[in-house]
Amino acid sequence: MSEPFSVSITVRGYETDTQGHLNQAVYLQYAEHARWSLLRAAGIEQRDLLDKGVGPVALENTVRYRSELHAGDEVTVSCAFVWSEGKTFRIEQTVTKADGRTAATLSGVGGLLDLKERRMVADPKEYFRALASDPRVLGL
Known about the structure:
Elements: E1 5-10, H1 24-41, H2 46-51, E2 54-65, E3 74-82, E4 88-97, E5 102-114, E6 119-120, H3 124-131
């Protein structure tokens, strides 16, 4: 894919803090929304993962705030999986304002948990590839 997957979101008033800025925890919620939207675009629903006995887990998240957001601001949240060998993968995301300025960048490490064994699966990339109707959306 030439452009990363992205979703549009309008900042809602109840998501802001006492200074009128988007609450810091909401950036993580926006990122999560974009990740699940990407999985759906690839043809993977949450129930598909559960039926296989696995679930995605967040192991690390870093948020870098660049430009404040306020109620009513329109943003896009991108999402790209960066695959490697082994049990983990990276997820790179950017929250971009309508004027093109970056509001925040998020970088995370994730994995796929075997829900019965309570251990990370050895090759999450292959689980996602097998479940996806369009693995290209996942960078596979």
